[in-house]
Design goal:
about 50% helix; globular; three-stranded mixed sheet; mainly alpha; 6 helices; two-stranded antiparallel sheet
Length: about 140
């Protein structure tokens, strides 16, 4: 029996995966996301730098670099750093999914302004109930 690999997630996936709704690039990518999220609910997650277990099934991963577009990898790494700062975790630390989820509402207004509006996944995230709840709270705070 093979030993199961520890679950590794990069910074921005610790935030953005809370808004997953079953959609993705293809069946392999989506199935992998579902498996990662299932495991995340019951296992420790090791925070990693660069490509993680979500990226492994991405069509745009070449080696350990995202080639979605010319500047994608650089932008994603910056987003990862910002996510870790907001979540107050460091690369190499072990975290629990529910602990991360508890932090998301407080950081969401900043994250939304900085990243969501320009993100290609925004339309997908908008279908997620947790995303809707956070957007509604954000709207209530503005009123």
């Amino acid at each position: 029996m093979s030993k199961r690999r520890i679950l590794h997630l990069r910074g921005h996936h610790l935030i953005c995966l809370h808004f997953f709704n079953g959609e993705g690039y293809d069946v392999a990518f989506t199935g992998n996301l579902e498996d990662v999220l299932k495991r995340a609910g019951s296992e420790y997650i090791e925070v990693c730098e660069g490509a993680d277990m979500v990226c492994e099934k991405c069509l745009y991963l070449k080696g350990r670099t995202c080639e979605y577009d010319v500047h994608a990898d650089e932008g994603i790494r910056e987003m990862d750093r910002e996510a870790l700062t907001l979540l107050e975790v460091k690369n190499g630390s072990k975290v629990r999914w529910h602990e991360i989820k508890e932090k998301v509402p407080a950081l969401f207004p900043h994250w939304f302004r900085r990243y969501c509006n320009e993100c290609d996944w925004k339309k997908t995230c908008e279908k997620n109930l947790f995303y809707h709840k956070l957007r509604a709270q954000q709207s209530d705070e503005i009123k």
